[in-house]
């Protein structure tokens, strides 16, 4: 029996120096699946990807901050409540 489950995500697209688009994603709510099954499914449906297992000691900010504060952060798709309403200046620590 197939069970559909929602996953939480934040995906951001950026361009390499050569101008090729690529994506960074933080995926959540995957406790119910095995890492090997998830990567196999992704490769079958979308092709090559490099995955890193989330380290709770580093926290989500370690993974997200670089992409959220970039000028193109608004091009991301998100399922993080309230993130679409955050202004980039909220992360400006230079003047604080």
UniProtKB/TrEMBL annotation:
For this entry, the protein name equals Replication-associated protein ORF2/G2P domain-containing protein
Q: Where is the Replication-associated protein ORF2/G2P domain?
A: 4-71
- InterPro entries reported for this sequence: ORF2/G2P_dom (IPR056906)
